[in-house]
């Protein structure tokens, strides 16, 4: 495999092209960029295989190295020396009836995929989290959705990549990413999550939600570590590390606390996006823009998207 490029290598290549300074922005903003890139590749005689090899050379989430990311973000070269400010969303609790459903759903999914101690693949561990995660999202009746394995935007720190779970609110605001690993003993895992949070913040900035804090969960289903990134202060924060037992009944019981935490994060992000949307609407009104809302974010958020009986009206 060819040696991996650094961010500096990519920037040097771009600067070496004799075109306007913003030629990359102009090209990527073109609606037919796919056709243009295909034409350029054909003219240059570049094969699909060469393109795939080049993509492997570019820095991405999966290839993130803590030493490289730490240097760019001015962090210590070891995570054990990393000291972040603490930020925790307001505490709220799901009712016992919800936890009962979560417990039962989790117990059944373990019947299917076996207990966590027997899982040696990330895909299976993703399935183990779903009974809790999916039911919590369902409480928002379609206003908050999951986009699994979505490709996130590139930033100046990476070329982007896919993430296990990407929680998006109607209107396009991304405020929660979840990364599931087989183990959390490597510093590179945190580097990957931090790059994903930066990518989420960049996506929000392009959608007009540049003040929205983005949250991240790094877990191997034994440890649940919650982080966040505030694009306003450009700072990362740590919340807490929740440990759960591997034994089935203890695991399902310990997930009560984890479920409350996930719900806290989603609810806090939901409220923050609502607040940002209201502020944007006020500014729009003050500027004299009386364009009908139509199917815009505010109308969708104030309506009930769910079609379940009893949810309409």
Provide the descriptors you would attach to this structure in a database record.
313 residues; alpha+beta; tt1808, chain A; 2 domains; seven-stranded mixed beta sheet; two-stranded antiparallel ribbon; 10 helices; 47% helix; globular; disordered C terminus
Which parts are unreliable, with pLDDT below 50 for 5 consecutive residues or more? 292-302, 309-313
Which fold name is given in CATH as the topology of the largest domain? Answer: tt1808, chain A
CATH second-level architecture of the largest domain: Alpha-Beta Complex
Query: What does the overall shape look like?
Result: globular
* Helix-strand category: alpha+beta
The top-level CATH class of the largest domain is Alpha Beta
> What's the total count of β strands?
9
Taking all Cα atoms into account, the compactness measure Rg is 21 Å
Oligomer: single chain
Report the order of strands and helices: HHHHHEHHEEEEEHEEEHH
Strand order of the largest sheet: 1-9-8-7-6-5-2
Distance between the termini: 58 Å
What is the makeup of the main sheet? Answer: 7 strands, mixed
Structure explained in plain terms:
By secondary structure, the chain is of the alpha+beta class. 47% of the residues lie in helices and 15% in strands. Strands 1-9-8-7-6-5-2 form a seven-stranded mixed β-sheet, with helices on both faces. Strands 3-4 form a two-stranded antiparallel ribbon. β3 and β4 form a beta hairpin. The model is unreliable at 292-302 and 309-313 (pLDDT under 50). Residues 285-313 are annotated as: Disordered. Residues 297-306 have a biased composition (Polar residues).
